[in-house]
Design brief:
single chain; 276 residues; alpha/beta
Length: 276
């Protein structure tokens, strides 16, 4: 009975979320042509947190406290900390799943809180720890809107080291992704998510513990793909494996919702930083 009760409490959140989508009304900025970014925004991928503070809900304690940092265009930032220090909250703030209690987040000089959600979230890419695939074809999982030609889809699969495996299957791009990992392993499914991010061609990519559920070999393969294919993209990598972030340009160490350290991996190791 306890297990069934807790499962019901968890599953009913999906129903509440659907109701939230039904009741959602476009923000003023989304119908105000004077407050919309250019179609190609963001072009550089510069991210700035200015005295940023946020909490999960009104009345709760702050989870990020006075965060100040500047991330340069095309820079690779690794983010690490102890559990509960605020790593994932940075991602939630960037996608405005939680809003600011104080301060600003600027992307290419634009305060994202002044934009509508439809003008903000589709401009960034994210690969999360939870593998999100549709029970549909490879083609639909890569390109849900159906706007990419097959040549581009196959090239993306080749870039993500999946072309040989999928081309050998009957149906090619029309192969169904089945529930229960029947025809694709966990690592291959994460590579499909990576291929989908490749197709988006955004200048800002967030990896939220994207390799936590896969083996070390696939993790290394993902890092190779990221270095090769996202070299012109600003990348924020949240990881629990040190090896995953050691290749970053700089590493951000969070402690109790604050940026405790932000420097190159070599500098942090040379300083014998106790937190890192």
């Amino acid at each position: 009975m306890v297990r069934q009760h807790t499962e019901l409490e968890s599953d009913i959140v999906a129903v509440e979320r659907l109701q939230e989508y039904v009741d959602f009304k476009p923000e003023v900025s989304e119908i105000n042509p004077d407050n919309r970014p250019l179609q190609e925004w963001p072009t550089q991928g510069r991210v700035e947190f200015i005295d940023y503070e946020t909490r999960h809900r009104p009345g709760f304690d702050l989870v990020l406290r006075g965060v100040n940092c500047s991330i340069n265009p095309h820079e690779k930032i690794g983010i690490c900390s102890r559990t509960g220090a605020g790593k994932s909250c940075l991602t939630l703030s960037l996608f405005r799943i939680i809003e600011a209690a104080k301060g600003q987040v600027l992307v290419d000089g634009i305060d994202i809180s002044t934009l509508g959600l439809y003008d903000t979230c589709p401009r960034f890419s994210i690969i999360s720890q939870d593998i999100v695939l549709f029970a549909s074809t490879i083609r639909f999982n890569l390109d849900p809107l159906g706007i990419r030609p097959d040549v581009e889809l196959w090239q993306t699969l080749e870039d993500s080291y999946l072309k040989d495996y999928i081309s050998a299957m009957e149906g090619g791009l029309n192969v169904m992704v089945l529930d229960g990992d029947d025809n694709f392993s966990i690592g291959q499914r994460q590579l499909i998510c990576l291929a989908r991010a490749l197709l988006c061609k955004t200048s800002l990519l967030v990896l939220n513990e994207a390799t936590a559920a896969i083996d070390l070999e696939t993790d290394a393969l993902v890092q190779v793909i990221i270095r090769q294919m996202f070299h012109e993209c600003t990348i924020l990598t949240i990881a629990h494996r040190i090896d995953t972030v050691m290749g970053s340009d700089r590493i951000m160490v969070l402690d109790q919702g604050r940026v405790a350290e932000l420097d190159t991996p070599a500098a942090l190791l040379a300083d014998q930083s106790p937190i890192f």
